[in-house]
Write a structure and sequence with these properties.
Number of helices: 7
Distance between the termini: 117 Å
Radius of gyration: 50 Å
Shape: flat
Structural class: alpha+beta
Largest sheet: 5 strands, mixed
Strand order of the largest sheet: 20-23-24-21-22
Strand content: 25-35%
Length: 409
């Protein structure tokens, strides 16, 4: 309801009257202060009233009139936003929303692939099945049919499963995180007709080598799915005894300073296998650090005529025993030799020649002569392996020539 002020009187105007005038009314005051007709402002307008001073008598003698003048002021409509303001507002809003969202942690780069191999029948688990994950080696299922691969990089892989008496299965896996898969194998019937098939056991021979140096690897560890673990001999050879011909055998071959090798073989009578190992660059750097420690310990005591030999230099010497290599390399300078230490242990003078004759260059990492050739120190690969795993302080070498026999430490 709109309120008009006229000479101290408040005159209400009802909404009904306002509606009958078409929503627009204006207040005009006749002489005597009585309103005649009302024409209101447009909807949303603000009505304000102010008094008007009395006017002079008109020329025709009509009396002056005191009246109120209705002043209508229109509220200003909101201004339209400048061009581009809406787009900038939307971009700013989306940016704030994105910033408010939780930031996901760094994407997972490695995962675990596990699974189970089953087949139709009362005992669905397939034990001893060979599972080959592309680029991640081979494993065999457990007695319950389970398998597992650790540290699998995110990506797509081919998974192949084989087992005796079953049709091979090949799956394509997309690894985005830890993945579990179930592989179903179909049985393959054997049609023997009138043939009699007899399984037999055979012996399998193998050899482990470093192909880059054309070097057989002695004391390499060989683990198999059939039989106890074993080690290679001085020529890098090993033998698996009484294995089933035509049956799959899982092998794991490892040696100090080389990357391990996991594979499978299906042995047949007369087969011989060669396993090539690749040097482990990380272990080689660790060995180099230990050699540096040994050189710092020797200080100025190293012989200037009889320079040290590392493993590669020993292997290039042409083979034979370590004693043969030393005689060929240092010749008459060996006459100065008074004591021999192998892995920091003093050899008895009566047995040092025999010990050097029994050692082969492949087992030695370094030889060095100290005190003008009077002391020979030999460091084997196994000793380097112990040094890498230990932070024991190396004692400085000691040689006292006036004693009989001389003191060597």
């Amino acid at each position: 309801m709109t309120l008009l002020t006229c000479q101290g009187e408040h005159l209400p105007t009802s909404q009904g009257e306002h509606a009958r005038t078409g929503g627009s009314s204006q207040a005009a005051l006749a002489p005597g202060g009585r309103p005649t007709s009302v024409a209101g402002p447009a909807a949303g307008a603000h009505v304000a009233s102010r008094p008007v001073r009395p006017q002079r008598r008109p020329a025709d003698g009509a009396p002056g009139v005191n009246r109120m003048e209705a002043v209508v002021t229109q509220k200003a409509a909101p201004a339209a936003p400048p061009a581009g303001t809406t787009a900038r507002w939307l971009r700013r809003t989306f940016a704030l929303l994105a910033a408010a969202l939780p930031i996901r942690a760094a994407a997972q780069t490695e995962a675990v692939v596990r699974g189970m191999v089953i087949a139709p029948g009362e005992s669905p688990a397939v034990a001893g099945a060979t599972v080959d994950l592309e680029g991640h080696g081979v494993t065999q299922t457990t007695a319950a049919g389970f398998f597992r691969f650790e540290r699998v990089a995110i990506g797509e892989y081919s998974l192949k499963v084989t087992a005796v008496g079953f049709q091979p299965a090949v799956l394509r896996l997309t690894v985005e995180g830890d993945t579990t898969v179930t592989v179903r194998l179909e049985r393959v019937p054997f049609r023997l007709d009138s043939l009699v098939v007899t399984a037999r056991k055979i012996d399998v021979e193998g050899r482990v080598q470093d192909p880059g140096r054309d070097l057989p690897l002695r004391d390499a560890d060989v683990l198999t799915s059939h039989g106890p673990p074993m080690r290679t001999d001085r020529r890098g050879r090993f033998r698996l005894k009484e294995v089933w011909e035509g049956g799959q055998i899982a092998l794991s071959v490892s040696a100090f300073g080389y990357l391990p090798l996991d594979t499978t073989v299906v042995p047949l009578a007369g087969d011989r296998y060669v396993f090539d190992l690749v040097p482990d660059l990380l272990v080689e750097r660790m060995i180099a650090q230990q050699i540096e420690r040994i050189e710092q310990r020797a200080g100025g005591r190293l012989s200037t005529l009889m320079r040290p030999l590392d493993r590669d230099g020993l292997l290039r010497s042409g083979g034979g025993s370590l004693r043969d290599v030393l005689r060929a390399k240092y010749s008459i300078h060996l006459r100065r030799l008074r004591c021999v230490l192998v892995d920091d242990r003093l050899l008895p003078p009566s047995a040092d020649g025999a010990m050097l004759g029994a050692m082969i260059p492949e087992d030695v990492q370094r030889v060095e002569f100290l005190f003008n050739g009077a002391m020979l120190r030999v460091y084997t690969r196994q000793y380097m392996r112990r040094l890498i795993g230990s932070r024991a302080k190396l004692r400085p070498p000691v040689y006292v020539a006036i004693a009989n026999p001389p003191v060597c430490e």
